[in-house]
Amino acid sequence: MEGKKALLAVSFGTSHRDTLEKTIAAAERDLAAAFPERKLYRAFTSGMILRKLAREDGLQIDDVPSALARLAEEGYTDVLVQPTHIINGDEYDKLRALAAGQAGRFQRVAFGVPLLTEPEDYQACVSALLAELPPEEEGRAVVLMGHGTGHPANAAYALLEYVLHDWGRRDVLVGTVEGWPGLEEVLRRLAERPAVRRVELRPLMLVAGDHAKHDLAGDGEDSWKSRLEGAGYETSCVLRGLGEYPGIRALFVEHARRAAQSA
Ligand code: CO
Predict the structure, then answer these.
(1) Alpha-carbon span 225 to 235, nearest angstrom
(2) How do beta strands 108-111 and 39-44 pair?
(3) How far is the CA of 91 from the centre of ligand 1 (A)?
(4) 1, pLDDT greater than 60
(5) CA of 147 to the centre of ligand 1 (A)
(6) What is the DSSP letter of 12?
(7) Cis link prior to 181 (omega < 30° from 0)?
(8) What is the rounded distance in angstroms from the CA atom of residue 203 to the CA atom of residue 242?
């Protein structure tokens, strides 16, 4: 008898229900469509987000251990785990460590990797981004705000910008809200291009949640929008999470497919 197969989509999570539906749920729908032989389940890795959703919205979402425990109890024997994380940072490490504790309950557990893992992932990601970003325009730069981390995987942001520039899009800059490079570095590099007067700001995160709404586009004096306007730039904000980009969602599907095919 063929065993029961599941696909567990694992996201950091967001407490902003509007963006959750447009990004995380959209990625899950694409994954479910690509693997009709597997039943899709959801887990979030952020305990803070899980507690907030339960407290404020009465929404119960599994963390990784409870999702895997549920799958084992329901008799699944083959689990494909696909994160929607951007980099191989703390959240992905945490996912792998938590899943390792339960892997023995299944005949097979396969793991897809985050968006930016192999060198060719960066090329594919840039291709998917450029399908959505506006074309290069005289006097304008596009600034992408990644999350950033103290984890060694933080280097992914600089490599992504390198590849964007290598593809000829030197008008696109990547900064991070919690890592390096940050806004100071972005401001410095914008200043090196005196022709730039306008800046389009976009999140480089799966969701357009708290960081996008407040740290990027908020009216507070420390938001990137306010700081850039204070520096004399005209700004516009496009609050679409990467999960709203079909080409990015396709890369998560591709990573899941690679994992499913690996022995
Ligand atoms: Co954060």
Answers:
(1) 6
(2) unpaired
(3) 12
(4) no
(5) 6
(6) -
(7) yes
(8) 8
Q: Residue 248 and residue 83: Cα distance in Å, rounded?
A: 13
| Cα–ligand 1 centroid distance for 33 (angstroms) | 30
Amino acid, res. 125: C
**Cα gap 9→32, rounded to integer Å:** 9
The active-site residue out of 16, 85, 147, 211 is: 147
User: CA 214 → CA 75, 85, 125, 231, 239, distances in Å?
Assistant: 43, 21, 25, 19, 11
State in Å: Cα 178 to ligand 1 middle. 7
Q: What is the mean pLDDT of residues 229-242?
A: 98
Please check whether residue 54 is in contact with residue 66, taking contact to mean a CB–CB distance below 8 angstroms.
Answer: no
Task: At 127, list the tokens.
Answer: 């291709």
The SS3 of residue 235 is strand
Using DSSP, state whether 75 is helix, strand or coil.
coil
Kindly give the distance from the C-alpha atom of residue 148 to the centroid of ligand 1, in angstroms, as a whole number.
Answer: 8
Is residue 214 among the annotated active site residues? no
The helix or strand, by DSSP H or E, that contains position 39, with its residue range, turns out to be strand 39-44
Q: How far apart are the two ends of the chain, measured CA to CA in Å?
A: 20
Do the bridges between strand 172-176 and strand 234-237 make them parallel or antiparallel, or are there none, so unpaired?
unpaired
If you average pLDDT over residues 211-240, what whole number do you get?
Answer: 98
Mean pLDDT of the chain: 97
